[in-house]
Design brief:
The chain is of the alpha+beta class. 62% of the residues lie in helices and 8% in strands. The two termini are 38 Å apart. This is ATPase.
């Protein structure tokens, strides 16, 4: 029975000790939404072979891709892709087979301006809606942005319901004021009686409407659905708030109605009519879903090489793409272009940076005025300037830029050719950035409707569908609320460890790892050497005050480490060691505990060995390193392990004496996942796991020495 109780207690103790580490590892596998879920679970969807991801559709632009030239396409892409954006309102995904439910989605290839104008003549545009009626698709997009998909949509549930209820209450207050102070102004008694009765009915109706409208304050979606909007419209239309008669105060009353309830009813009416017309003109139907899979690294490289074939520096770009990491291609290309300009025209890098900024301003001014900078610069720099001046006229920004360029022209030889080369390089770099973004996020389209040209998945947070000849606004209302992602076995394995990849890339953990290993190793070696020599002196050598000095050493163990932080910091500052390895190593190479531990063990070594060594002519130095240290391997390994772990886990001192990532360690690096807005616990746990892993492995291999060293310390 006693044995059973012991086993039960051991099992409970083991569970209590292991549970936090197990929870840390489980959390490191979790998706962001699972971290703060309640009640907490030991499971995670990272192991799932498929997942439905919630998305919110929005348009990416107001124009479509219709047979653009390379230059036009590059300029277009640099502004904004012509696509339908599906913003992920869920946990991000990075791989798998993506299926977007497009089959049966209705769309239109466009509506004529004549038909559109005919529709506009039949609707009343609200005064608070800034309408652009020059382009149907632009108009529809503005409507959806203003009413449903913008940052602060008109039909945002809480704001709309509170505003409408507030308008009803405002109308009720107005009626109360009229009943108290204005009703007596009506001279016709019959009209007065009729109006009073009307106001009484309105007050009752207001209370009923408020009760019905308040039901829509709660809902699953932030923005009211079309069904809810129509229902609210029916509620408001059911009651008559406008007085049809005429008297001394009726005009003021009707004006109040128009500015309160009327404003909301006008906007609802307008949106409902636009939406009905929008649905009516969609006479086409998508024939299939969109299915896409990620490109491999080599496929992305080949695609990028294929897309830069028309660049003037094609050969340089191809060389960089083949010999440089894909993520560094743009920066390396920019550096090589700058180096060529510096070498060819003999200008310094500071002047080059200023000229790039100034010429970039000119390119932006040209673009704002509809000029093709690249075509003009291909002719000459003078043609470029002349074209800008003919369009711009007087422009303060242009004048300031030109005056600075003219000042540089007086100091630089062949200034116009230098300016032209730098400007062309800037345009080429801008084009490369646009194509690079299109390539690095591209997924291979397995199947899709004919008008779908590309699918981009940007860090698992946005899906962009590039369209041709079809405006993306026509798909905003197709009810695409989820996309399906299917994972292979390999994908699942990568999903499970995705947090580790994200955590590693979130900060320079490679540098942190090097610093931690270097500092912990050097500190441990130096401490073992110093402690071994000090312990030997206190155990085998005789000198005046040995006992007193050792007592003083032991007394320092009573001083909390936090008390020493300020004096140590002041000392380090005086030496100029802030943000150096010296500050992280030197103050911690002496450990009184390690000296005490080794001394106790050294004293357990038989004195006969020392006598024999003396007879053989051995010195203290030789006796220490050839006899005492080898016999004390367990305690030395124990001291080393304790020091290594302590140095590995050091946080406060490292945080105080370092200012840059160059010298910081893993423990300080874990701060990257905490901020004022919250903590990314899944990434933090992933980083913590790979941070403590080396220490755990070392302990597993050295635990027998650790136990033996502690057990034998002090025995004689």
């Amino acid at each position: 029975m006693k044995k059973l109780l012991i086993y039960v207690l051991l099992a409970i103790g083991s569970i209590i000790m292991i549970a936090p580490f197990a929870w840390m590892i489980v959390t490191s596998f979790k998706l962001p939404s699972e971290v703060n879920s309640w009640p907490p679970k030991w499971t995670t969807r990272s192991f799932a072979f498929s997942r439905d991801v919630k998305v919110i559709p929005s348009t990416g632009t107001v124009s479509t891709v219709k047979g653009l030239s390379l230059r036009e396409a590059l300029a277009f892409i640099a502004k904004k892709s012509a696509g339908l954006n599906l913003n992920v309102n869920d946990d991000p995904f990075y791989r798998g087979t993506l299926t977007i439910p497009f089959k049966g989605a209705k769309y239109s290839k466009g509506v004529s301006q004549e038909e559109f104008s005919s529709f506009l003549s039949q609707v009343s545009i609200p005064s608070d809606f800034n309408a652009d009626t020059s382009n149907p698709e632009q108009f529809f997009e503005n409507v959806f942005l203003f009413y449903k998909t913008g940052a602060n949509p008109f039909f945002r549930r809480d704001v709309f319901v509170e505003g409408l209820v507030g308008s009803l209450e405002s109308l009720s207050d107005t009626i109360d004021t009229i009943s108290t102070f204005g009703i007596d102004r009506i001279t016709d008694e019959t009209e007065k009686s009729t109006f009073e009765k009307f106001l009484e009915d309105v007050v009752k109706n207001i209370e009923m409407v408020k009760a019905e409208i308040n039901k829509y304050k709660a809902g699953t979606e932030i923005v009211l659905s079309d069904e809810e909007i129509n229902a609210i419209r029916d509620i408001l239309s059911r009651y008559n708030f406008v007085y049809s008669g005429t008297n001394e105060v009726s005009e003021n009353y009707n004006t109040t109605v128009k500015n309160t309830i009327g404003k909301y009813l006008e906007n609802i009416d307008f949106y409902v009519k636009v939406k009905a017309y929008f649905s009516e003109i969609q006479d086409e139907q998508a024939e299939t879903d969109i299915v896409a899979v990620p490109l491999s690294k080599q496929e992305r490289i080949n695609l990028l090489i294929n897309r830069v074939q028309d660049f003037k520096d094609k050969d340089l770009l191809v060389e960089i793409v083949k010999n440089t990491s894909l993520k560094d291609v743009v920066e390396e290309f920019a550096k090589r272009l700058d180096d060529e300009v510096v070498k060819k025209f003999k200008i310094n890098t500071q002047d080059l940076a200023s000229l790039k900024t100034l010429l970039g301003n000119l390119i932006n001014i040209a673009g704002e005025n509809g000029l093709d900078s690249q075509t003009l610069l291909n002719d000459s720099y003078d043609a470029f300037i002349k074209a800008i001046e003919s369009k711009v006229g007087f422009n303060l920004s242009y004048s300031a830029t030109r005056s600075k360029l003219d000042a540089y022209a007086e100091e630089i030889q062949n200034a116009k050719e230098v300016f032209r080369t730098i400007a062309l390089n800037s345009l080429e770099l801008q084009s490369l950035r646009a194509i690079y973004e299109q390539t690095v996020y591209a997924w291979r389209v397995v199947s899709a409707p004919s008008f779908v040209k590309d699918v981009l998945v940007k860090e698992g947070k946005t899906i962009e569908i590039l369209l041709e000849d079809v405006h993306p606004v026509y798909f905003v209302d197709d009810g695409i609320k989820t996309v399906h992602v299917k994972f292979s076995t390999g994908d699942v394995f990568k999903n499970v460890f995705q947090n580790y990849v994200n955590a590693w890339n979130a900060a320079p953990f490679g540098r942190y790892y090097f610093n931690t290993v270097f500092i912990a190793t050097v500190t441990t070696i130096l401490e073992i050497v110093i402690s071994a020599m000090a312990a030997y002196a206190f155990s085998w050598m005789n000198f005046p005050g040995k006992g007193l000095l050792f007592s003083i050493f032991l007394a320092t163990m009573m001083v909390p480490g936090e008390v020493l932080l300020v004096p140590n910091f002041i000392t380090i500052t005086k030496f100029g060691w802030i943000d150096t390895y010296y500050a992280l190593i030197v103050p911690w190479v002496v450990s009184v505990f390690s000296i005490f531990l080794m001394r106790q063990h050294f004293m357990s070594i038989p004195s006969e060995l020392f006598d024999a060594a003396k007879i053989d002519g051995s010195s203290h130095w030789r006796f220490l390193w050839q006899i005492v240290v080898p016999l004390s391997k367990p305690v030395i390994i124990t001291s080393a392990l304790l020091k290594f772990v302590g140095s590995w886990n050091a946080f406060l001192w490292v945080l105080i004496v370092t200012n840059s990532p160059k010298y910081r360690t893993l423990t300080v690096g874990l701060q990257s996942f905490s901020s004022e807005v919250g903590t990314l616990y899944n990434l933090l746990m992933a980083a913590a796991t790979f941070s403590i892993l080396p220490v755990v492995i070392i302990f597993l291999f050295a635990q027998k020495y650790f136990v033996r060293g502690i057990a034998r310390t002090g025995l004689k």
